[in-house]
Amino acid sequence: MDITKSKLFIHTIVDIRDDFEEKYEKAYRAYEDAITGVDEKELHELLSGTICKETQHEEISLALTYLILTDSNAAGKAYSDLTILTHDGLAFVINNLAMLVAEKYQRLNDVPRKQLLWFLKELIKNQVLNVDNLVWNILRQASGGDISPKNVALVDGLLDIFIEHRSWLEKDQFLVGTVIYTFLRLLEDHNGPQFSHLYNKEVGFVISLIRDRFADVIPLGREFVRLLQNVSRIPEFECLWKDILHNPKKLCPTFNGVMQLMQTKTSRRFLRCRLTPDVERKLHFLISNVKFGNQKRYQDWFQEKYFTTPESQSLRSDLIRFIIGAIHPTNDMLCSDIIPRWAVIGWLLTSCTNAVAQANAKLSLFYDWLFFDPLKDNIMNIEPGILVMYHSIKNHPLVSCTLLDFLCRIMKHFHPKGEDRVRAGIYNSLRMILDKQVIPNLFPLLESSKLDRELKLMLRENFREFFSSPSTTPTVIGTSQTLKGPLLEDDQQSESDRPEDNFSHMENVVNYNTLNDELTFSDDEDEKKINNSKDEVSDDDDLPLSKVLELEKPIIQSIPEELLSCMDVFSNSRSAEDFESLLDELTQTDPLNIDQETYVNERIAQILHQSLSSRSIFPESKSEECLSESISGPIFSLLKILLQPEEKRKIPLTNLLLHVHKLIPNTGYLLLHYLKVNAKQQSRRKENVTSAFKGNVYKYYCAIIDSPFEEQLKKDLGLLEKNDTKLFFWILPDLFKEYKSVMLNNMDVLALFIGAIDANNLRDVIFNITQGKLIMFTSDDIIDVIRDSLEYETFEQFCFWQLIQAHDIPLESFQDIIPELDTAVHAEALTYILLLLKNEQPSTELVKCLLSRESKNRADAFVISVLRCLVRKLTKK
Prior knowledge:
It is found in: Cytoplasm; Nucleus. The chain has about 900 residues and is mainly α.
């Protein structure tokens, strides 16, 4: 058959038939041969006779489906024959149709596309079960940002079906939500005069469905509000906004207002339904397979394929929301060289050519920040926003500047009456970002020299808490506890208030009449405020320290000149020698008052942070020179003070250390490294004497920063493993030796250890264990450690059992776990236990454990293997 004349699919000159198409056409040819010369009665008998024959039933079902899709004249008769044939309620047909739509819809010819809607309508009209999955797959093909005739015809056809069979639609709550979410999104694409009939029909249907089924709308959550903002200028939706803001009970007795929606997280299934399967597959490939640095040709192809028209720019928001809400990479992917999510989102933002679409894309990026609740929301939803800004500030500062500007303005304009809640959500986001070490701190971003003065003024005004002390950040505010206040009092506002007054940024984000205008967010009053304050607040990032001191003279006017001079010298040189001179001056000067001491400590902490090298401090060799160089930075001059006798430790320096820790979270593991190097150096200076790792110094450090020792140690090890794996494995043996009570059988430390290990690390660790230099496990409670290890990946379990074997842990200390292990699930553990049992003498307790195992199969291969091994051992005796 000529491939250019396929009835089902569109073929280009380079396309070949795939198995999907061959399956349908082969079934149809066989069916055609079977019914040639057969009258109606014989055909009926043939169909009835194949009901019990599974293979023939499936082939004829495919043939009739093919006939329905390719021949509109024969479709009615074919559908009737299909209902006679089926013995599964058309489940086989529906599943194959859903697969066809998901995999091949974009390649369907015009006739099959039209017939697919006819087929769907017949299935709904005849109340066929489980059609909802097919509907969901077809809805996904109604792409946003696409106003081509084919896509508009699909949207129009689906809308007619839902209007005609609304009673059927309303039986499925999830499908109602999906239909509302889909058509609410598509509405913004159909505002042109050529779509007036479709537009009016969509508005009427969506408004009616929302008002009648608002209980099904509530699970759509915050994404419903985002889409509703894009159509807020439509009169019918203005009225809906008024009811949502001022009379929520009118819509649904259980609805308490807009904040209930903003607090509800939207299911990723709704986010997914706004991307076609084809786009989703390509996006997943880009984020899962393309190496960072090699993405340009893929992005160029994507741009040419999906973003060629002005209308298609609105698809960017759908993509960003899907990436943020539905694609959460594993730890392995985060540590790999695959392109990260933030880089893809950065490309989507910077390549956008439409001002309104770009503003909506920015809102999509920060949308989860606005009402972020640390107790309920996922940090993966706010991570891309901060990383786009953080990684762009150096080489693409304009990207970071525009996003920071947007974040400042959206804080005030997204919901003026709920500004405090939005501000709390953004502060919660930043606090969580810092707590989880997504980035080390905010200062490279907020105090970058590449920010202009007006933006710096705005940042200082809106994020004053993050500026006032680099060592402190605002307390996390429980969003769920603050939502009972003034915002819900919107119910008492007059009906004359427009929805835009409450969500005023909608005028900025969506304005159909100014699509080509540059988007602005501030009014004249804002500009005057910024201009008037230019002279009041100084941008000290670009000024010499002496100038900054003059500007801040009211705070530091009584600080001794000698101390200021030392700070100035250290700020310029950032050398350890000048820092030690500064520390000497700080301890010898008269006591400062609280404000002055805070100022001095914060300034020193900032300079120390800037002096840190981005390179690893792990010594290339263990020579005296390399060891000394690894602790030559200024911060180690401060840490050295902790080794002094307690009576010599000056209070001003311990207070300084507290500020340094809060600005530089890595301080803890830098101290561990310093203690390790110091112990080695002392051992070499005192021949035949092994100097101990001074573990009490680290405990004293934990006391200074008011952090529980075990908790701080775990946090520092986590940072160390993330930032410098070599240093992590180098320091670890000393920690196991010094802090035995905490480290031995510690499941959290073991998880970090196993997650970072490779073959070389494993070799070195086992060498240390066999030489007696390292002990990680004891027999006590080892069974709990083994239970925890069952969740590890295969390679990690391989390493874990190698470590167990190296420790010579007696089998009787963990043999009680044998009955708990499942042959199908715990293959790694059972394999290693079997190898260990080969060298064990049989005992009553061991046999009891073996015979206590439950097996899903008639024979337990593990028990049989062990028993045979034991029998052979006994017979040899």
